[in-house]
Amino acid sequence: MSKVLAALEAALGDAVATDEAILKAHCRDYWSRSELTDWLGDAQPLPLAVVTPRSTEAMAEAVRLCRAHGTVMVTRGGGSGVCGGVLADRDQVVLSTRGLDGLEHLDSHNLLATFGAGTMGMAAEEAVAAEGFTIGNWPQSIALSTVGGWVATRASGQYSTAYGNTEDLVYDLEAVLPDGSIFRSRPTPRAAAGPDLRQLLLGSEGTLGVVTKVTFSLRPQAECGIRQAFHFADFATGIEAMREVIRPGWRPPVVRLYDARESRRHFRDTCPQGRAMLIFLHEGPEAHAEAEAAAVADLCRARGGEAADKQTVDDWFAHRNTVPSWRELFEQGLVVDTIEVATDWRRLNALYEATLAKFAAVPGLVAASAHSSHAYRSGANLYFTFAVSPEREAMLGAYDACWRGAMEAAAELGAGIAHHHGIGRVRRDWLTTELGAPGVALLRTVKRALDPDGLMNPGVLIPEG
Q1: Cα 256–262–267 angle (5° rounding)?
Q2: d(CA 150, CA 135)
Q3: What Å distances lie between residue 102 and 98, 210, 219, 281, CA to CA?
Q4: Are 422 and 334 members of one domain?
Q5: Does residue 214 share a domain with residue 110?
Q6: Cα three-residue angle 310-316-317, rounded to 5 degrees
Q7: How far apart are CA 288 and CA 281, in angstroms?
Q8: CB within 8 A of 361, min separation 6: which ones?
């Protein structure tokens, strides 16, 4: 038995697991490339142990022991990440946050709820919903991801246009830093007390510490909800309709535009072929929801939008999180993934066309499409899907070529390379195009200051060099 394993077992007892099935279930996340590599027969090596502390103090002890023995630590929440943020190798320890589970405190007067970082997203939402509130974060992975994972990746949910992204919802945080000390941010609605240190942990992907608790600022559940949809001549016209909805200040929680290919796939019976579908959800006090829905409908019609049957939106809500597994697609000979990027309104359609052109240059491309799911005053995201059908031995190369094309298109247009899935390994080497060389150097300096031995999730987020 290794010295670090013996020390962990002595200190944490049954929180330390070495069973092969547990190691295999925790060694990576849901990154398509990892799944493909495994499916092709190149199995991921198993880590030394999975440690699941049940308190912040126990997590801090696990970190201190691993650091004392020079052991690499890989933090894992629900394992739903899709960018290779979790990939534990031999002699490494997985720190699972799943033992830090549940609602710890709900303050209905101040609209605050504190959870252990390992609480699954749907469980957190259901806990506050029972008291008449909502967190307002509805990622597609809500049933599979943890609230700490939302923080670590700067996640975004389907209702973000009105309610904001994770960084807008977090009130305060607790985390174990790489030296085993415990950081707690001040629970205050706003502070001008120097840089906001919570931002070091938001998006840090386990490289700067382990998030152990999260407090969210809640909202009362909406009094009224109105759904509607419109289809447009093309994607570019739909983009302009989105922009004109957001510009005067309307903020429907859901503003989602599908291009012609995706509209045909999702709304075959209600969207004419070749047109782009734009769907909305309006929520809030009844008077607000009704006024917003009416104003948005007028703006869409002025752009040539034609109203779709309400059942269109109802069906989307019922099935929006139903997707096939990677392996089901591999078995059909398809290499598939999704890539989300973002830019301002002026460049959005150019980014859409440039990225599709990059995909088209990849041999064996079967399909490429996009939708926009998050809109802001000054721009929006694009969420691409590609499918390639190469020979078995060319599958990994085709996957890499599609990702390279998407990152090149974003870099060439000065767009953001990641909107809400994070960096992980798949985008790591493109981070310099996002932050510039000085920005990456600054990130490396912060990493060295907090984790001088490079033991917290190495290989993720920060480019090598």
Answers
A1: 80
A2: 12
A3: 10, 17, 19, 29
A4: yes
A5: yes
A6: 95
A7: 12
A8: 405
3-state secondary structure at position 16: strand
Q: Are residues 211 and 270 in the same domain?
A: no
140 and 90, same domain (yes or no): no
CATH code for the domain in which residue 393 is found: 3.30.300.330
Q: Quick check: 204 and 445 in contact, CB under 8 A?
A: no
Residue 211 falls in which region: left (phi positive, over 0), alpha (psi -120 to 50) or beta: beta
3-state secondary structure of 121: helix
Query: Which 3 state secondary structure label does DSSP give 161?
Result: helix
CATH number of residue 125's parent domain: 3.30.465.10
User: Which residue, of 50, 67, 96, is where some domain finishes?
Assistant: 96
| 3-class state of residue 304 by DSSP | coil
449: buried, middle or exposed (CB in 10 Å: 19+, 13-18, 0-12)?
exposed
Q: Are 307 and 226 in contact (CB under 8 A)?
A: no
Q: Which domain holds residue 365?
A: 326-426
For residue 260, the domain's CATH number is 3.30.70.3450
Reading the block at residue 420, the tokens are 């809400």
- Total residues belonging to the chain: 465
Give residue 25's pLDDT: 97
Instruction: Quote the pLDDT of residue 315.
Output: 86
Mean pLDDT by 10 residues, the chain (465 residues): 92 98 97 97 95 98 98 98 97 98 98 98 98 97 97 97 97 98 96 94 98 98 96 98 98 97 90 94 97 98 94 84 89 97 98 98 98 98 98 97 98 98 98 97 97 98 91
The CATH number of the domain where 85 resides is what?
3.30.43.10
Beta bridge partner(s), residue 170: 216
Residues 421 and 435 in one domain: no
End-of-domain residue from the set 278, 294, 319: 319
Count structural domains, the chain: 5
* Residue found by looking up tokens 């699954």 in the block: 120
The letter for the amino acid at 140 is Q
Mark whether 174 and 155 lie in a shared domain. Answer: yes
Alpha carbon 214 to its chain centroid, in Å, reads: 16
Task: Provide the 3-class DSSP secondary structure of residue 140.
Answer: coil
